[in-house]
Amino acid sequence: MTSFRSVASRRLAAALATSIFIFPAAAVAESSATANGVSYANKGLVAIGRIPASQRDKFGETFGSGSGMAIDVTSWKKDGDAYRGSLWLLPDRGYNVEGTTDYNARINKIDVTLMPATGGDVAADKQQTGVQAKLADTLLLTDEQGKNMTGLDPEAGTRPASGATPVLPFASTGKVSLDAEAVVRLADGSFLISDEYGPYIYHFSADGKMISATQPPKALLPMRKGEINFSSNNVGEGGKKPDPKDPETGRQNNQGLEGMSLTPDGKYLIAVLQSATRQDGGDSSSTRDHTRALVYDASDVDHLKLAHEYVVPLPKFEGKDKKLVAAQSEILALSDKAFLMLARDSNNGQGLKGDTSVYRKIELVDLSGATDIAGGEYDDVKAVAPKGVLYSAVKPATLHDFIDLNDSKELARFGLHNGAPNDKNNLSEKWEAMSIASALDASAPDDYFLFVANDNDFLTQDGFQVGKSYKAEGDADVDTMFQVFRVTLPGVTKR
After folding, report:
1. CA-to-CA distance for 483 and 86, rounded, in angstroms?
2. pTM
3. How many C-alpha atoms does 235 have within 13 Å on its Cβ side?
4. DSSP 3-state of 423
5. Are strands 480-488 and 447-454 parallel, antiparallel or unpaired?
6. Which residues contact 22 (CB under 8 A, 6 or more apart)?
7. DSSP alpha helix (H) spans, 121-269
8. Calculated CA dihedral for residues 13, 18, 24, 29, nearest 10 degrees
9. What is the C-alpha to C-alpha distance for residues 184 and 436, in angstroms, rounded to an integer?
């Protein structure tokens, strides 16, 4: 998620780099959860990996990290005790200084070798050295006219609709604005990418050219004074700030389609708003807990049709003087009725003043008993949860705890911790990407490696972007990091 923060806190550390390191642990189930009659198991943390903050991409710019991730399952092979394959990492809108930058949207391909450990204890010299990773390629993303897209705030308004393409977020540079957050790689090598500005779902060809754009229901579109206004109030010095600074209805600033995933059978695409719409309590960090899951018929990805829509309750945790909402950062579809959802707090972790996270968990979301609100009055102007209170006639999805990313015992096995000392082994703030690859174990055919990655906001002491060098404030380099869990996911057979 690309939440806006002060200049000081946004410039704090890290980017990506050349190596990922991973290893496995004990194969004894740590936890389980059930959704729609299916039980899923977490067998524990099995690996940790890093990409150094100073890594640069194919174009010589600071390497963006994990706002989204897609493992190429066709490349995934087992070679003795090792696994080899490739994955795609999606960065967001670029290094945030005063406002956003004219960073060309892109996606990075990484070749990886995973060498899982099998025991409960991991030798100190191998705790973060179990996977080798190499930057294989960087692909720039363009609009349908072949023009580079930008991370700049769309302060210029909208690009007019043309043919089947809806109005698009438009920057002062004359480029379409994209704040990319989640990625799905399709069988033909093309990509579905969700963004925060729209919040839209884009289809890009295998060579990075936009093919189509899907506009969400009106209830999610950011509206100011009766008109669509895509600005996230993150303009640079001298830029045109939106009036009012926050949308009156629709997605909150920087709270767009943060999570997106294709169901294993390929029939449905699920996209989830980071937190509640403004009209549903999204104007407050303590009432924004009723977000929406959009379930699209994916039979034609260039003409996605909204099939179902559900209210998903977000977890709450104790703040200093009130309960706060843990916004969701990514999802992984298990079926059209269940998905994993990564939810977390904010402003805590390596490089930030707050060193200890209160809430970082992967929840199992069960949609099977939830009320389908697709296409009705709640997709127009009527709130489904005014001031954060859900109408009693609407039954939300149910949540079940599945994996705790802050588990101190598990982290310690790999030389990591949550909280002080606030050093490189303290977990960073933004964990925003998930993808799975088969364990290729004939004795456990439903077992997968669940990769979870952070987004380091391009924070590094040796940065270079949009023609300029930079140093993040705070003197911290926040590496891109991977946590890998072995999980049992029955029915997930087509990834």
Report:
1. 16
2. 0.93
3. 19
4. coil
5. antiparallel
6. 46, 47, 48, 49, 114, 115, 116, 130, 131, 482, 484
7. none
8. 50
9. 12
CA-to-CA distance for 390 and 281, rounded, in angstroms?
Answer: 10
Closest C-alpha to 269, from 280, 278, 277, 261: 261
Please answer whether residues 229 and 247 qualify as being in contact, where contact means their C-beta atoms are separated by less than 8 angstroms: yes
Q: The tokens of 400 are what?
A: 């079940």
Q: Which of 480, 425, 478, 403 is nearest to 131 (CA)?
A: 480
The CB density around residue 156, as the number of other CB atoms within 10 Å, is 19
> Do the strands 31-35 and 38-51 form a parallel or antiparallel pair, or are they unpaired?
antiparallel
Q: For 463-492, b where at least 16 C-beta lie within 10 A, e where not — what string?
A: bbbbeeebebbbebbbbbbbbbbbbbbeeb
Rounded CA separation 129/144 (Å): 41
Residue written as tokens 């990409």? 51
Which token pair is 327? 């916004």
The reported pLDDT for the residue numbered 97 is 67
The structure tokens 């957050």 sit at 181
Distance, in Å, from the CA atom of 107 to the CA atom of 89, rounded to the nearest integer, reads 6
Residue 243's alpha-carbon distances to 160, 227, 246, 483, in angstroms, are: 20, 11, 8, 41
Residues of the chain with pLDDT under 70: 1-29, 97-98, 494-495
Tokens of 98: 């005063």
Q: What is the pLDDT of residue 29?
A: 46
**DSSP characters for 238-266?**
T----SSSS-SBSSPTT-SEEEEEE-TTS
pLDDT of the residue at 8: 37
pLDDT score, position 121: 85
Span 99-153, pLDDT tens digits = 788 999 999 999 999 988 777 788 898 899 777 888 999 999 999 999 999 999 9
